[in-house]
């Protein structure tokens, strides 16, 4: 009850390979899977207006921002909004604000963007991926996405992987300056993978070149504008609610309780925007 609700809607922007919701399983017993797991309902129960967007999962932030612009225009044309972007979604928000939305006016001076573990300066894992796979084999790798048990509604063209290299993100930042009057907030996360862990390899690749990271994005890359803090013992998927309950329980048993709770975190962001 102590969380405040912003007057204006919050638009959530997903990252690479993200979605809004998808249906998996047989037609007789379909299962609805949401990307922002448990977060939408938590915010809406506090009276917060939420729009969960879907953009091409593997396209560049430039192309994704165009789709994002149309969705926001369709739903909230002429209204003030709060943008929250996870991972590459934060880059979509920045490009949208710099190149597609009208600049803030004296009558509407604030238009905040909050980015969560966004690779503002790229991710060395993207460099490693492109060096290992190569442009010529990238279409074949993308074809593997069709073998997943769930199909991405908007798969995209795969340009995101090369776009997120550190050099290409340097160029992106030069062409996408911050807009005067827009407030930029950011969060980062750090994580130490276990002996057998989904993020162990990518974490090590990034750690060697960039330092502490959440498995895909380093702290150094995540900081943009006003940095609000570092989330401890949190990996890249935890940040959208895809937490491993077994890992949480094991940490509690070992006396290293993980304090991060996704719904509470985003309620806190909404409260921050309201205040």
* Assembly category: single chain
Number of domains: 1
| Tally of individual helices | 11
Low-confidence stretches: 21-26
Secondary-structure element series: EEEHEHEHEHHHHEHHEHH
Biggest sheet strand order reads 4-1-5-6-7-8
User: Radius of gyration, Cα only, in angstroms?
Assistant: 18 Å
* CATH homologous superfamily designation: Alpha/Beta hydrolase fold, catalytic domain
Biggest sheet features: 6 strands, parallel
Protein name: Alpha/beta-hydrolase
InterPro entries: AB_hydrolase_fold
Keywords: Hydrolase
GO molecular function: hydrolase activity
Structure description:
It comes from Gloeophyllum trabeum (strain ATCC 11539 / FP-39264 / Madison 617) (Brown rot fungus). Keywords: Hydrolase. The longest helix is centred in the first third of the chain and has 16 residues. This protein starts with 9 loop residues before the first strand and ends with a helix. About 0% of the residues have low confidence. It is built from eleven helices and eight strands. Helix 2 crosses helix 3. With about 280 residues, it is an alpha/beta fold. Helix content is about 35%, strand content about 15%. The protein has one domain: Alpha/Beta hydrolase fold, catalytic domain (Rossmann fold).
